Amino acid sequence: MPKVTIDGQEVNVPAGTVVVEAARQVGNEIPVFCYHPKLAPVGMCRMCLVEVGTPRLNKDRQVELDVDGKPIINWMPKFQTGCTQVVSEGMAIRTQTSQVAAARKDVLEFLLTSHPLDCPVCDKGGECPLQNLTMAYGPGVSRFDYAVKFHFQKPVHLNNLITLDRERCIQCARCTRFSDEIAGDPVLGFENRGRGMEIVTLSDPPFDSKFSGNTTDICPVGALTTRDFRFRARVWELEDVPSICNHCAVGCNTIIGQRVNDIKRIMPRQNESVNEIWLCDKGRFAHHFANSRQSTLGPPVPSGTHRLETPLIRRGGPQGDRLVPASWPEALKLVAEKLSAAGPDGVYGISGDRLPNEDMYLFQKFFRQVLGSNHLARWPVVARGPVTGTLFQEIGLSSGSNFGKMGKDTSILVVGADAEEEAPIHFLRIKQAGDRGAALIVANPYHTKLEKYGRHCFVYRPGSAAAFVWGLVRAIMDAGLEQKEFLGSRATGLAELQTGMEQYTVARAAELAGVKAEDLQAAAQTFAQAANGVLVIGRELLGSDTDPALPEAIRALLTVTGHIGKAQNGLLPLLPHNNTQGALDMGLDAGPEYRTKWLPGYQPVTDKGTSSGIPASSAIYVIGSDLGSESDLARQALEAAPFVIVQDLLLTETALLADVVLPAAAPMEREGTFTSSERRVQRFKPALQPPGHALPDWWILRELAQVMANAQDKTGWRYDTPADIMAEIAHVVPQYATMAYENLPVPDLPSRKLDYDDSLFYRGTSFLNPGGEGQVWPVKAEDSAVVLQVRWVEPAVAGQPAAGQTWLITRPHLYDAGTLLSQTALLQPQMVPHTWLHVSPADAARWGVAEGAAVSVSTGEDMLSFVVHLDADLPAGIVTAAPARLEGAAGQTRWPVNVTVVNAQRLAS
Amino acid sequence: MIGEILKGMSITFKTMFQPPTTVSYPEVKKPVAERFRGRHELKRYDNGLERCIGCSLCAAACPADAIFVEAAENTDEERYSPGERYAKVYEINMLRCIFCGYCEDACPTEAVVLEKNYELASYSRESLIYTKDMLLVPHPADIQKTA
Fold first, then answer.
1. For A119-125+145-294, which CATH class?
2. Could you read off the pLDDT of A169-224 as tens digits, one per residue?
3. Contact flag A121-B56 (C-beta cutoff 8 Å)
4. How is domain A806-903 classified at the CATH fold level?
5. Is the peptide bond before A14 cis (omega within 30 degrees of 0)?
């Protein structure tokens, strides 16, 4: 730890620290524009000029002392940039002298010569580091003539989301460095020189990145702004409300900038355990579903996609049955009557996995207590296969794990997951860990972006994930790399496993998976020898058709390597939605047979119910899910059901099939908690008023329970706020015992980074998170008394793909054109419609089809129609489609499947 | 005592034959001071484009929180002001306004000006929220038409 003297104050800082960081430690601000603690320093802006000196050494390399016994300092003749100057032992730094102040003044005067000074119309105005630092350090007047400023035409749209104003750019290179270093999308660069220097995008489509919005946060001027927020408000007019992103299961911390009951923008809130200071473009821009409304005064028109504002009841009329507005008491009375009449065996509840924990808990409680029924299921079907919640709560990523701290001693194995598409911020952090030295092993049936950073990369045959994972287990056992000490006390069934695997050699596994045996052995060695190991699995392995051997293979792999039960180890599933984990925890799990398996907290259900499949004769209560648009099977069931209740935000296709539609409040309109796929429980606050008469789901369920409980016992349904429900959850669900609201971090009072702390780096563009980072509940394996059972299950191989065959597999996309996402017009160019079939150029040529051609494929049992979309990243012989399209489809097909083209629109000759 | 009464009455009789200082408002209106701060106007450039760029600095400066601005982007087809930005919504709540003139001070384009009109009484609260249409001075072309 070198000792440095900064403005007379001595401080010890770690070797390799740059002067700017060292100065922070003594509380002396060195202003910066280009330096950013998450990015490599470049010294572009020259704002951080300081005087630096080193101790004078005599001939014996000893520090020379003056008469006072202090070291004599050799001051460098010129200023040094504090962001690139690394400290050394005895270094002296002066940050507060008049020379430094003059240098800062001159640098600012120089930076402003090319700046248009159009702060009144600039979206950054009010939170702009250039404004702030000019006020603090700059000259009052400029010696340069305002009339001869260098002008560019403005604005330039870098992509459909980001706008560039070239005049305002001070060439700090934060955006290009972010794209290169953090996002791994090297699509931005500088062109020309001097005052003509400008940012250009080099990719096609332009600025092709899922993280492009982050460049607007870190841009220290108004050069990069989002089109979403363009001229929509001034930043000081916004009310900033702390929230949690409601899209994927990463659980990014956000700030909703609200004005006049309208979301103006969403920005990341710093949480170093979850999203650091980043947010993907989906989380940032896909908030328009909440504002998708006409006037709050106008009549609710039961068509289109704007927000529901009153309950709707289907009534007969001269034009036939239609949904007409009704009052809450009327709608609740009708629902209560119908549900009571249907009886416990005649009702069926389907919950989406986007609702907050409190609402899902009340939904299952409503069914189990008030209706006395266990007929509950969760939509979507993904994350309902053999690899489910019980495995996650047993060997899931241990509490205390943090991808931000993973480095050389860690190996991250990613199987069947396209992290960038499924959980973009996890992708960012896994990649970052790789950059810090963690060994990434990436295995997928197709190429993914993470492969660029992988130490070992595999493309296994579709459907052979279990064979692949068992191959790793066998290779580890062959090499004698299993953690014998750990296994001795923590696992049983090892001997049986070894006997079972006798015939299952690495060579056989490699053959089944279609990979090289020596690569498999090398990867197994890397994973087993790493001190910490994380297994990341994605949608591919979470499907309902997944091989039943897979959970056993995963458990065996993590057990023999000892990568469970301690921080930075375990299994991380990339779950499909923001609260899929919460749905599992709240007892809304159900297998592919649509039978409920667990009560809240994974306590087994004793009464299994009688249903198998969605029973057509039941009254169906759908809450927060548009299953009707995703699945033909679900649609048929809903059409056949005698009574359907749909509780949702929008008049979805499912809602159009309903007899009663209940308007619910969006996540940003109410309070609650989400549980991320790391099992981190995080609170969020309401930012908006719900439209019209819409109410939070828990409120609706409570009212309904009270109506129905007229004759029965009314106790237990007196919840005034979500806090009351969470208190009950803490009581009922053992994992949530410490999660009562008073123990969860309160996301109150988000202070902007205007005070000292990190202000010089983020000033004005990021938000502190004073409430803490959320609570993660520990998995079973963290209890050292828990003994894990490993078991050999032969992997079922989907068949031997041969040359000329084509395999159809599911592949998730970030912009998947779902019900909520499609409300955001801005993101339309990025959307991947459900109807697309991704085909490699080789297959397209073989089939004789071109981009946009209509094609029907046969799986042998089912016929599916698609539109061809060419995808150069796909290996030949593999075609992919959206999970919602395949897993929700009617029929008996199991995925992956060998398909044949039966009807294709041929190339125009 | 009589002396005092006569003294007082002499002033009464003196002023009785002088011209009156009150004016017969509303028939007669006194000119206001040059720096009088009355009803706001949103000015235009000579070519008819609005001066206001919707920057909201007037609203930020307003101590009474009387101004509400919502901006939008100019397009080539639909241009209201020079540059990229214009005020789509511009409202001043005259019941809240304290006529301090800070908005005028804050305005970077000299768009909002407190003019001489002080006749602002009305029968309803709603009608005292002045919208952009009411505040904006007429377009030069419209003036020519009516002239």
1. alpha beta
2. 999 999 999 999 999 999 999 999 988 899 999 898 899 999 999 999 999 999 99
3. no
4. Barwin-like endoglucanases (2.40.40)
5. no
User: How many other CB atoms are found less than 10 A from the CB of residue A156?
Assistant: 17
Domain residue limits, chain A:
3-111, 119-125+145-294, 312-378+602-671+689-723, 389-573, 806-903
Instruction: Report which residue type is found at B4.
Output: E
**Whether the predicted model's global pTM rises above the 0.95 cut:** no
CATH tag for A3-111 (out of 1.20.1300.10, 3.40.190.10, 3.10.20.740, 3.30.420.130): 3.10.20.740
Q: Are A187 and A181 in contact (CB under 8 A)?
A: no
DSSP string, A365-413: HIIIIIS----EEESSSTT-SSS-HHHHHHHBSPTT--GGG--TTEEEE
The ranges assigned to domains in chain B are 32-146
Looking at residue A717, its amino acid is W
Tell me which residue in B60, B72, B84 faces A154 most closely, judged by beta carbons.
B84
**What does the pLDDT look like over A306-356, one tens digit per residue?**
788 899 999 887 767 888 899 999 999 999 999 999 988 888 888 998 999
> Is there a contact between B53 and A120 if contact means CB atoms under 8 Å apart?
yes
The class of domain A312-378+602-671+689-723 in CATH terms is alpha beta
The topology (CATH level 3) of B32-146 is Alpha-Beta Plaits (3.30.70)
Using CA atoms, how far apart are residues A337 and A332, in angstroms rounded to an integer?
8
Question: Which of A91-105, A848-862, B19-33, B49-63 is predicted with the least confidence, judged by mean pLDDT?
Answer: A848-862
CA distances from A225 to A115, A172, A183 (A): 16, 15, 18
Confidence at A271, pLDDT banded by 50, 70, 90: confident
CATH number of the structural domain A389-573: 3.40.228.10
Q: Do A120 and B59 touch (CB under 8 A)?
A: no
Give the gap in angstroms from C-alpha A233 to the nearest C-alpha of chain B.
Answer: 7
Helices within A748-816 (DSSP H only): 759-762
